[in-house]
């Protein structure tokens, strides 16, 4: 089932998931290809980004962004091609970073579109290392984490779109970098390919002891993107004046109840106080949108110099997006998860 | 039982408390008055500061400062008079801020002593509004809290040494200030005498609803000095980009076990993330010692201008220090708790 010029396949939210999303929470619907009105462009999706934050949009719990309405397409960043244009700023054939969602076609008045240069690296990088995940890694690590050479930086989801970039930037800044990832193959990749100093398999029952052994001088920056048992293992190792940027909590996203007691909130609070720890949540474009150019300049250089490597996990076919997304929340992807909706 | 020139009464830690400290955890011991050696001074305690952090020193759990050893005097900041001096920097009759502990006399080589001018306000202010508590309020609120005019600032222990100053500085900065305190009389004082916009009695079972009603625009800065149920009531009201300086957790200090479950840590983490909240612990002299002069200048002016009021709760007699301290942890004091060890 491939993309056509006559139909707009959409993957809609069919039902709000309870716990882990399942296939039946999504629905593939075929609708007519929309038309570009006055001053509008018609966009065709080529790459679709799948990211953990989308689990939050499937829920109607209060959050920083509105939930996806049931019966409408799932949201997503996309790399799209302009197929028709009534807007003088865009020409047919232009490539843009858009927010077109899980569908083949979308219409836009140009708001929020960013033109992409197909001669600079893979277009899909706009959804990964040069886009939201890379920018998240860069600002969270450098602005909130503020690592100094010789300090120890720990990041989980170490081969993922954000974690892999966090660790490599920390290496560029002269830090000891310890990753946490799911399985021996990802850990090997983090150390051998990405240059981390160590990487711990979070499936190991000895996670706390292994992490402590890998961080003999404690932890100065913990880039929090998972939560749960990883954070529990990290907390006692945090040093005085440690910084904890909080960008995601994937271990919690599918939870339907809070963990069993006791309530460990006082343990966290006491650590914050006695170790003078700074912990700060951030939402990348809300907090740092104005600093994108500085990120793009640095990251472009690091990629050109081979200082940052970026692995993509590309799944073919829009119809496979739900299963790929379900796997993302289980840690099944290996690298930035992207759906190739069309071949070009 | 008053101070003499011939004996040094000490209140020693007799046993590490389990839960709330009790009288038997302290022991009054009479020892000889020490002598000042070469380059040393003999200090006589006149005012003794009692502060919540001392509960931490009674415990041998790992913390930012070493615990008091059993069988040695409890630690404390003091206003002391130089009674004998072999140190050219100090003359007999000088008043100093010292860290002499719960005793009549102590010897010092001058390290860490700060001379006080008895012509500038009450000497005891060096232990309160012009000292550690006032400095804590000032830096925590202004540097971490960074309140802007029109924002809502919430502080608990609103009539205490720190909270009362936090709220009054926030008023100077143009904020809406909501206090939380124990009992109607303290709440009345916070509003009528200190100028808070509202103050909620934390004994009320309706604390969450009352706090929400007093903060119609949510909470932008929560100055955390208590923890526990107050923090639980605050958390859902925190606004996007709120700041939470963490200076103390008095509600937890006597706890022997964690609260019953479920484990609410994920609730806190999710709030930090989705609301992009900054939460930061600090230990005043470790983090901000170098900024004391800026505080002293501002606070000196505010006091001179009558913009800051400061209530002291003065207890007479070193022998009454244990009971006063036990009461402090129960919220029985009304204002900065100080023991007057001698009349001059």
TrEMBL record, chains A, B:
Pfam families reported in the protein's UniProt record: ADH_N_2, ADH_zinc_N
UniProt entry keywords in alphabetical sequence: Oxidoreductase
Molecular function as annotated in GO: oxidoreductase activity, acting on the CH-CH group of donors, NAD or NADP as acceptor
Entries under CDD domains matching the protein: PGDH
InterPro entries: ADH-like_C, ADH_N_2, ER, GroES-like_sf, MDR_fam, NAD(P)-bd_dom_sf
Oxidoreductase in keyword set: yes
Protein name: Putative alcohol dehydrogenase, zinc-binding protein
């Amino acid at each position: 089932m491939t993309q056509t010029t006559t139909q707009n396949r959409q993957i809609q939210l069919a039902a709000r998931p309870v716990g882990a999303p399942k296939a039946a929470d999504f629905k593939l619907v075929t609708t007519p290809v929309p038309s570009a009105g006055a001053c509008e462009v018609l966009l065709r999706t080529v790459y679709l980004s799948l990211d953990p934050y989308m689990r939050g949009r499937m829920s109607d719990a209060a959050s920083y962004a509105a939930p996806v309405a049931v019966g409408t397409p799932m949201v997503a960043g996309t790399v799209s091609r302009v197929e028709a244009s009534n807007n003088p700023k865009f020409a047919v054939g232009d490539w843009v970073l858009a927010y077109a969602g899980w569908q083949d076609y979308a219409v836009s008045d140009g708001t929020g579109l960013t033109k992409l240069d197909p001669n600079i690296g893979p277009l899909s990088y706009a959804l990964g290392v040069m886009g939201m995940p890379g920018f998240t890694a860069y600002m969270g690590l450098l602005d909130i984490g503020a690592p100094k050479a010789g300090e120890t930086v720990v990041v989980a989801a170490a081969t993922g779109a954000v974690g892999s970039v966090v660790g490599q930037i920390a290496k560029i800044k002269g830090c000891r970098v310890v990753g946490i990832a799911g399985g021996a193959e990802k850990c090997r990749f983090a150390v051998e390919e990405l240059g981390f100093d160590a990487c711990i398999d979070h499936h190991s029952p000895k996670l706390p002891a292994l992490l402590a052994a890998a961080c003999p001088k404690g932890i100065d920056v913990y880039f929090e993107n998972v939560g749960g048992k990883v954070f529990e293992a990290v907390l006692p190792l945090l040093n005085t004046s440690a910084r904890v940027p909080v960008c995601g909590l994937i271990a919690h996203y599918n939870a339907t109840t809070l963990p069993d007691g006791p309530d460990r909130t006082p343990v966290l609070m006491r650590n914050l106080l006695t170790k003078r720890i700074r912990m700060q949540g951030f939402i990348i474009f809300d907090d740092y949108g104005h600093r994108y150019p500085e990120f793009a300049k640095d990251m472009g250089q690091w990629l050109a110099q081979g200082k940052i490597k970026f692995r993509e996990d590309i799944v073919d076919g829009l119809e496979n997006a739900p299963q790929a997304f379900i796997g993302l929340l289980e840690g099944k992807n290996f690298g930035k998860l992207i759906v190739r909706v069309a071949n070009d």
